[in-house]
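Progress note, sequence design subtask.
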């Protein structure tokens, strides 16, 4: 009985000073079995998860999505092209509405709303071409007579950032390049 109190008191002191890992090492094997592990760290929501959360909150079509720290900024256009919502999706997936408009010009959003390839499809196509993690997706309406396309930024595990243009009708990656290509030459 006294041994258990001493071990418990010692474990309490070690927990206060050194944390659970040191405490488990300081206790006997019987007492160490009763120490619970610290909860696992929560992983940040991916671009795909942020898109799904935003569309659940405000149904429509994603116009843009980008990561700023642990927060995703998502712009969604309503399916009729007249509404627009600016949303933030936290690392836990919680959605906060920053702004909502209902008087958008539907004609300006016609190409986006009618595009065969959505932001989600563009992310999938870009990741197939360049595995990694999507960092941003942006609808480009095709100024200068060009066809509209999706600009998707993918960060790969080797530290390179890939920018892919994804065709709005076919989902094909029509152009891509790494922001790090020119930096690699400087390192040698």
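Output:
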């Amino acid at each position: 009985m006294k041994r258990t109190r001493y071990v418990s008191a010692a474990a309490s002191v070690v927990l206060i000073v050194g944390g659970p890992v040191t405490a488990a090492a300081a206790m006997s094997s019987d007492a160490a079995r009763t120490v619970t592990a610290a909860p696992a760290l929560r992983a940040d929501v991916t671009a795909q998860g942020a898109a799904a959360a935003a569309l659940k909150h405000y149904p429509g079509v994603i116009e843009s999505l980008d990561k700023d720290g642990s927060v995703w900024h998502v712009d969604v256009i309503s399916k009729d092209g007249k509404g627009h919502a600016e949303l933030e999706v936290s690392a836990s997936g919680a959605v906060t509405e920053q702004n909502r408009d209902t008087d958008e010009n539907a004609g300006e959003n016609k190409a986006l709303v009618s595009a065969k390839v959505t932001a989600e499809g563009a992310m999938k196509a870009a990741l197939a071409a360049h595995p990694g993690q999507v960092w941003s997706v942006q609808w480009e309406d095709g100024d200068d007579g060009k066809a509209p396309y999706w600009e998707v930024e993918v960060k790969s595990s080797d530290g390179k950032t890939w920018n892919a243009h994804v065709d709005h009708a076919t989902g094909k990656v029509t152009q891509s390049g790494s922001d790090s290509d020119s930096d690699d030459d400087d390192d040698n």
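The chain has six helices and eight strands. Work on this subtask will continue into the next period as scheduled.
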